[in-house]
Amino acid sequence: MRKMLIGCAIAALISLVTGTATTAQETANQTTFFTFSAPFELPGGKTLPAGRYRFQIVDSPSNRHVVQVMSEKGDQIYATILAIPAQRRDVPSDPEVRFMEAPANQPPAIRTWWYPGRSIGHEFIYPKDHARRLAANQKEGVLTVEGNVTGDEMKTADLTRIDATGKETPTPEPTAAARPRGDEPRTELPRTASALPLIGLIGLASLAGAAWLRRR
Question: Pairing state of beta strands 77-87 and 96-99?
Fold first, then answer.
């Protein structure tokens, strides 16, 4: 009986730790699932059909604004997108994407993505030719880079915004020091750090219960 109870306590402890680690990883990477009812466009002219997709941040120590768009199961990567912090005053309670204006015969392009509980989202950077095409239908400029560069060259290129007239305005990337405290998750989001002591107490309580039953 004692061995069986100890085994159950260890199994429960392992399952709790595994679940907590998964939640922590998804929160850190801002993993979000979106279901689109129509095709939509991503930087580089990539158009995806209607369906359910996974958005998440690439785990990079140097840049927390590289976004991957994947299949729902995460087994296929459709796009890896450079972005910059996008600030808003309110804090969204649900995941949110905002689209650019588009003609009726074209799929809309995504401008920004927000993870719930954060006032700092991710504004996508579009290659110059793609941004110029999109800007023709926008009241607000489209974020792009200086020069006709693509791929890894975009990481070091200067940022600009191109408007409907083709005019480009330099746009410095926000620095970490300038980001408001709203970038931190709200208290109601999962706080995995405080769960480990609780898990330990559950394990100890299970062992104590096994010892008591042995005495009985």
Answer: unpaired
Q: Going by C-beta distance under 8 Å and a sequence separation of 6 or more, which residues neighbour residue 141?
A: 135, 161, 162, 163, 169
The domain tally of the chain equals: 1
Long-range contacts at 99-105 (CB < 8 A, ≥ 24 apart): 99/40, 100/134, 100/137, 100/138, 100/142, 101/137, 101/138, 101/139, 102/41, 102/134, 102/137, 103/137
Instruction: In whole angstroms, give the CA distance from residue 85 to residue 176.
Output: 9
For residue 154, the model assigns a pLDDT of 73
Q: Name the residue with higher pLDDT: 157 or 82.
A: 82
pLDDT at residue number 124: 96
List the domain range (segments joined by +) for residue 49. Answer: 31-139+177-185
19 found inside a domain: no
Residue 118 within a domain: yes
As a dihedral over the C-alpha atoms of residue 6, residue 9, residue 13, residue 15, rounded to 10 degrees, the angle is 110
pLDDT digits (tens, 9 = 90+) for 83-96: 999 999 999 999 99
If phi > 0 it is left, if psi is from -120 to 50 it is alpha, else beta; for residue 119 that is alpha
Quote the pLDDT of residue 23: 60
